[in-house]
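so the lab meeting is tmrw and i was supposed to have these ready like two days ago... anyway. pasting both below. for each one the top line is the aa sequence and the line under it is the structure tokens. i havent really looked at them closely yet so no promises
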Amino acid sequence: MAGDRALEIIRSLDGVVDAFYLDRDILERVKIEESAVKAAGEVSVINEGVNQALERDKVICIIKDPRFRPPPEPTVVLKSTDGQVMGIEVFPETSEKYLEMGDAIFVSDGFVMFPSVMPSNGQGENFVMPPIPFPELSEAEGFRDVISCSPSPTSDDMIRKWHELKPNGKYASILVAYNVPKEK
């Protein structure tokens, strides 16, 4: 079964402490929680990754430690409500690119803002958490529409309690979701 293979692949990765499937009950609770998340200054957070994961056939939660590989793409983007990128997560290997831009301001080691980008017509902004590729589960192995994402801290806590895990500040969670090929 593809599902068993998914857990086998994921559990073999460096930095994976635990991995388990989430059932529809906890996923519904996560959906409700994610819809209420706000960032500092009451900026809305739209977790597109979680929203798309909830549409997949299977969702696995990975509990990871710092040895787990970094994401292949930025996991947080600040966008104006008209879709312009106003800020983006950066990684040590990509920060040089933004240092050379001239119109980027580092607000932390891991996030850069573009002050020249302003929302049009007085629109606002949202933090968007996009779906991220998860190349370890390949189409060749029978996994379709694979994505990964980070749940909000409150959803992470909810999932840990549901799975009866003790709080541990050294670990973080990632959701990996995929579709199962339809039987012919």
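ok protien two:
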Amino acid sequence: MASLGTVSDRTPELIEQLVSVWERSVRATHAFLSEEEVAEIKPFVPQALMGVETLVVAAKDGEPVGFMGVESGRLEMLFLDPAARGHGLGRRLLEHGIARLGVTELTVNEQNPQAVGFYEHLGFKTYRRTELGEEGRPYPLLYMRL
């Protein structure tokens, strides 16, 4: 079973490992993104990981297999290595975020139906939809609340 821990020391090595988890996760779940788009977004991931208020990492055998970022009660990111999916780790991360970090809101890509279903299953409901993503790309977003 993976352990969860809030990270205060965001070393370059850890950030590199988490970017790898992000990339594997995105390739497995974000079919609407082209290879070029993944490559365009990837350079911004370390900045997001360094800047998010609270970073919780799930590790198995000392290696990161998932993470979430929370800012002021909002889930900003949650990514799992594809090999770690389907074992309750996403639920553990999100429930930790709700119980310990006050998560009540999140935004998810509408074109990622597995994630939308996951969040709905855990009690989140859509209250707003936009046609474009936050960077102006054509990826509809769903804004959800617990």
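from a quick look at the 2nd one: The beta strands are 3-6, 54-60, 63-71, 74-80, 105-109, 125-130, 141-145. Residues 9 and 126 are 34 Å apart (CA to CA). will dig more after coffe
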